[in-house]
């Protein structure tokens, strides 16, 4: 048994990044992970496998919809589902093995198994109790359950996001419950692979919390791609028959009850923090009323020597937010000044087109008391997007009308998830819309649309 400076519990993006940074800062570090592979939900059953399926299904969509228009003709491409799942598995394995390599490189011990905390400074894995000066909880989250809906990933009929990444076959029809990030990314995948997809959403809009114009445009584009939406509908339950499920929902406007049948139902109604298997209750670690681990601004819980980061603490459930917190808490534990700017955390939906945002929405900026100016630029005016046949969408930049300081940016369009970082950097440096507008952007790139939106905050965009 060895004594560590830090034991991190959970090797997802929050936990493994924390372990690496702490080791780089000279601490003796171990990370406990009970899965067969490192990387947590993100690498194993989240961000990474879903991106492989999104990429493959996007390629298929391009061959069917746009290849002929570009003069690429020939035999029609077909889907080999087993092969596609292998490609997904190889993508995952490459990444999880990469983390294992980084652990070895940084001399981090991987304690294989599920951890329980016996007391502050004592972490039990299997039959061994390891001593440590500090503990970081990075236990992540799991899909929330919905009353009346029994998920069974083995049969592949009513599944959560994990089951939807490994369906036994491509269903002919799919009902997605919840028009959030998971529902729309995976709904898009199966729609492109040939399923009739209907999304049932409780709210009257899709992607809750996003800028209203983005919500509208994004729904329009997805509808054009073949997805159907039933909004303002509360799902009451599912029943499973022979190879099919029936989803029952009530429309909020008149309480009328309806049902739809589908070969597969994806439940994507949010995730909840995973905090129930490490013994926090016995230690007296305080939780919030929504079940997250309560922390102060240095990620410390109320029990000395125990910190928490990532999906198990309040804030957006995003891998990159967890990574930032992982680095910051490692610095705090090493006696430095870890910091996360929660005002500049981008969000991306990896559909085609992508949707990306950072900072305040127009409504939130006004609510916060800003007089705002809006610069909007459509991708129809962007040469590169047109050449790529992806000119649906726009960039919307929000700046303070008095100071010109950039407050937020919302993009629906090609490469949105990459382009948003220009605005993240601008916001980190307190830039004005004019700063962005005066920065030379290479032509022809989709990023020119960001500059045009910034120009539209001033004397006007050029290409509209
Ligand atoms: N690309 C990414 O960044 C990415 C990808 C996947 C997941 N995530 C994160 O994972 C978390 C979970 O994602 P998610 O999409 O499951 O949750 P979400 O909270 O984004 O969306 C869930 C949706 O389900 C709806 N809903 C809830 N109960 C319902 C009911 N009974 N009937 C109909 N609709 C109902 C909600 O109104 C909401 O719109 C989120 O925090 C998300 O940010 C992020």
Overall description:
The chain has helices spanning 13-24, 40-45, 47-65, 81-105, 161-164, 181-192, 212-224, 280-283, 319-333, 362-367, 383-387, 416-428, 433-437, 448-456, and strands spanning 3-9, 29-33, 109-112, 115-119, 122-125, 128-137, 141-143, 158-159, 173-177, 196-200, 228-230, 233-240, 245-251, 257-262, 264-267, 271-273, 306-308, 347-349, 354-359, 372-378, 394-400, 406-413. The strands form five sheets. Strands 1, 2, 3, 4, 5, 6 and 17 form a seven-stranded mixed beta sheet that branches. Strands 8-15-9-10-11 form a five-stranded parallel beta sheet. A five-stranded antiparallel beta sheet has the order 18-19-22-21-20, with helices on both faces. It is α/β, with parallel strands linked by helices. Helix 3 (47-65) packs parallel to helix 6 (181-192). Bound molecules: nicotinamide-adenine-dinucleotide. Nicotinamide-adenine-dinucleotide (NAD) binds next to helix 6, strand 12 and strand 18. Its EC number is 1.8.1.4. GO terms for molecular function: dihydrolipoyl dehydrogenase (NADH) activity. Residues 345-454 form the Pyridine nucleotide-disulphide oxidoreductase dimerisation domain. Keywords: Disulfide bond, FAD, Flavoprotein, NAD, Oxidoreductase, Redox-active center.
Give a quick set of tags describing it.
alpha/beta, 22 strands, globular, binds nicotinamide-adenine-dinucleotide
């Amino acid at each position: 048994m060895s004594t560590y400076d830090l034991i991190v519990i959970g090797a997802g993006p929050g936990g493994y990044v924390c372990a690496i940074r702490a080791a780089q800062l000279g601490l003796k570090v171990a990370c406990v992970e009970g899965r067969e592979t490192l990387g947590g939900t993100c690498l194993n059953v989240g961000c990474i496998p879903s991106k492989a399926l999104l990429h493959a299904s996007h390629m298929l969509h391009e061959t069917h919809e746009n290849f002929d228009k570009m003069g690429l003709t020939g035999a029609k491409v077909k889907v080999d589902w087993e092969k596609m799942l292998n490609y997904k598995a190889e993508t995952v394995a490459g990444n999880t093995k990469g983390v294992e390599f980084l652990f070895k490189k940084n001399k981090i011990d991987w304690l294989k198994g599920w951890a329980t905390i016996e007391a502050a400074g004592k972490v039990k894995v299997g039959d061994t109790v390891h001593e440590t000066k500090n503990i970081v909880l990075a236990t992540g989250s799991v899909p929330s359950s919905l009353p009346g809906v029994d998920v069974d990933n083995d049969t592949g009929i009513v599944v959560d996001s994990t089951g939807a990444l490994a369906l036994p076959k491509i269903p002919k029809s799919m009902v997605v419950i919840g028009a959030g990030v998971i529902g729309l990314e995976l709904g898009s995948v199966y729609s492109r692979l040939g399923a009739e997809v209907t999304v049932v959403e409780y709210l009257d809009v899709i992607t809750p919390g996003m800028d209203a114009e983005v919500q509208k445009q994004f729904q329009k584009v997805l509808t054009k791609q073949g997805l159907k939406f039933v909004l303002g509908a509360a799902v009451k339950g599912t029943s499973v028959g022979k190879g099919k499920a029936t989803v029952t929902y009530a429309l909020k406007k008149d309480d009328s009850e309806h049902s739809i049948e589908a070969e597969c139902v994806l439940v994507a109604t949010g995730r909840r923090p995973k905090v129930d298997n490490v013994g926090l209750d016995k230690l007296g670690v305080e939780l919030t009323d929504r079940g997250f681990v309560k922390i102060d601004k240095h990620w410390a819980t109320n029990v000395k020597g125990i910190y928490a980061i990532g999906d198990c603490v309040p804030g957006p459930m995003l891998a990159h937010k967890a990574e930032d917190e992982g680095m910051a808490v490692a610095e705090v534990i090493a006696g430095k000044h870890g910091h996360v700017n929660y005002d500049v955390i981008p969000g991306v939906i990896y559909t085609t087109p992508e949707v990306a945002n950072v900072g305040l929405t127009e409504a939130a900026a006004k609510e916060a008391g800003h007089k705002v100016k809006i610069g909007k630029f459509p991708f129809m005016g962007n040469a590169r997007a047109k050449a790529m046949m992806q000119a649906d969408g726009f960039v919307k930049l929000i700046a303070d009308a008095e100071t010109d300081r950039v407050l937020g940016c919302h993009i629906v369009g090609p490469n949105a998830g990459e382009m948003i970082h220009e605005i993240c950097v601008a916001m980190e440096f307190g830039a004005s819309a004019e700063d962005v507008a005066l920065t030379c952007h290479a032509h022809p790139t989709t990023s020119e649309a960001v500059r045009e939106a910034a120009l539209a905050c001033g004397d006007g965009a050029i290409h509209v």
